[in-house]
Amino acid sequence: MTKILENKKVIAILLAIIILVGVGIIATKGLNVGLEYSSKEKVEMILDQHFESEDVEKIAVEVLDTKNVLVKKVEVFEDTVAVYAKTISDDQKEKLIERINEAYGIELTETTVEETFEAKTRLRDVIKVYIIPILVTTLVVAIYHAIIFRKLGMVKIMLSSILFVVIAEAVLISIYAITRISVTPAIFAVGSLVYVGTVYVATLIFEQLLKMKK
Amino acid sequence: MKKIKILTIALMSILVALIAFGGIYTKYLNTTANIVKEYNFYADLDGYREVEYKVIEGDENATVENLIKTKDILEKRLTLIGENNYKIGVDEKTGQVNISLLENEDTDKYLSLLTQMGDFEIIDTETEEVLLTKDQLATVDVMYGSMSYDVYYQIVNLSLAFNDEAISTLEEISKTYIVETVEIEDEDGEIYEETNEKTVTMMLSGYEILTTSFDEILLDGVMEINMGTATDEETFNSILVQAINMKTVLETDTIPVNIEHTQNKYVLSSYDGAKLINIVSVIGLIISALVFLVKLNQKGVLATFITLFTISSILLIIKYTNVEITLMSLSALIAVFVINAVITMKLFKTNKENMLKVFANLLLNIMPLILIAITFTFSSIIGISAFGMMLFWGILITLVVSYAITKNIVDMK
């Protein structure tokens, strides 16, 4: 903690650069939205037998020539597979059916395979439900920090506590934007981990500042 | 004595880990079955309902603006019925709406609610003249109570309160359509009573929901519709859900485009929940063991066993408390590993005299995380509440194990 406090200016500049670059990329190129949230095409095939999603995924990745593929089992009997990709051309669909027929010894044809389109989900619609719980929790934590570390100045600590969380989450989103990592449902898992980590580090920093003041 | 204690801890940790990760198998009919409860996975690690709606071809109202409005209305309806765990997407070019919902006994009821256009009118049954519309509605409430005559029954009413401008209109309507009993004399001079009943019909989404007349003049602008009576809990709940659905449709705008239901499927998650939780646990244990061995040397072995016991206990408690496991729960488990490592190392590095002071300081530092766990637990967003619950149980068990076991071990030094 002492090292963090000693190098706070360097850390602040570094974080500001990451956030600025991230904001710039988001404003111009946006985030790299993963298949779960983007518009996609889906080919649904009844295999009529038990299968492993990983095996179908291998075939789909090969045929569709992209790693950006999602494979899901459909309905409770788990004998139907849905392959999702950004686009699936007629040729690719034909090849996919051919390879699936070979692998599972079935005789699917283009007419027995269902092809549909799935609309995109806007990220802001997904994120908005998380805003209130996070705001409330951040406020509760900030009040706790302000009470425990009141000797450092209640308002200052409360604002710092909130600012820590905002900066940490902004840095996370910026890293997603800069590195072009796909935004998938896992971002919320990563985001919550960063949130908890930030609150813990903030507590340690405040504790250290209090010790230094004493 | 010390060796026996350490050996007991090691054996106990291995036993609990075997139960948590492997299970307990007993003979069941002609096979063996695991009697340890399975994890309760949430939609992102289990499966969900995927529904597709399309705008009916040739609908001139299918503009981008109306499609976005449709999406907003569907979202508002889902929120009003308390269903916050959904994913909705709209394609402005094709007019297609995709919704992913949790799969449970209410999913079909929610879906029927979503497809309703939601236009509401009160019309004259005979002439079909429109008397009141949805725009004149102020609030809608579901009311229920119980009554007992010969049998005990519960009654569900829908209370429609009209806005100030419509109060007088409703009063006039109730005067016009009131049940009147008039005495009529026939050709033989006999007098008989005839009920002169002019009725109104309530139309919801183009369907007739009720044809009725009024028993009294409505002066306060409030009209009550009886949704049904029930003598058993199941029927009562079904009527109640119907009433809540109708309230939701009435409280949200009318869907501006004609949509039809084109697909409705149960889709399994692309993640294997049990596999993921085992991977996170094993990697967490390996990293913890390495850190403990480097930082605590020989004592690191004991710290690893304690961590194994802690994590295995958490996983068992998560199973038996029916905590829903989501992708976010896995990140809470990672956080628990870190918290456990910090607490274990601090306690192992301290001496007997300072033990309580160090423990109190650790508790103070972890308190914000406990606050996060508690506030998250009360969220209606399952991802957040699942994270909160995993964090809560994780911290609680870590603290209990640290106090009961780690502290005792360190005391033995």
Summarize the structure.
Chain A is of the alpha+beta class and 214 residues long. Chain A has helices at residues 2-6, 8-28, 53-64, 90-104, 123-148, 154-179, 186-213, and strands spanning 40-46, 69-74, 80-85, 114-118.
List keywords for this structure.
heterodimer; A: four-stranded antiparallel β-sheet; B: 413 residues; alpha+beta; four-stranded antiparallel β-sheet; elongated
Mind explaining what this structure looks like?
The complex is a heterodimer of chains A (214) and B (413). In chain A, strands 2-3-1-4 form a four-stranded antiparallel beta sheet. The two termini of chain A are 16 Å apart. The mean pLDDT of chain A is 91. By secondary structure, chain A is of the alpha+beta class. In chain A, β2 and β3 form a beta hairpin. Chain A has helices at 2-6, 8-28, 53-64, 90-104, 123-148, 154-179, 186-213, and strands spanning 40-46, 69-74, 80-85, 114-118. With 413 residues, chain B is α+β, with helices and mostly antiparallel strands. Chain B has helices spanning 2-22, 64-80, 107-115, 164-176, 233-251, 273-296, 299-320, 327-349, 355-377, 382-411; strands at 25-28, 31-34, 40-41, 47-55, 86-91, 96-101, 120-124, 130-133, 137-148, 152-162, 180-185, 191-196, 200-204, 207-212, 222-230, 259-268, 324-325. In chain B, the strands form six sheets. Chain B has a four-stranded antiparallel beta sheet, covered by helices on one side. Chain B has a four-stranded antiparallel beta sheet with strand order 8-7-13-14, covered by helices on one side. In chain B, strands 9-10-15 form a three-stranded antiparallel beta sheet. The longest helix of chain B is centred in the last third of the chain and has 30 residues, at 382-411. The two termini of chain B are 12 Å apart. The model of chain B has no long low-confidence stretch (mean pLDDT 88). The chains are: A alpha+beta (214), B alpha+beta (413). Chains A and B meet through β2, β4, α5 and α7 of A and β5, β6, β16, α8 and α9 of B.
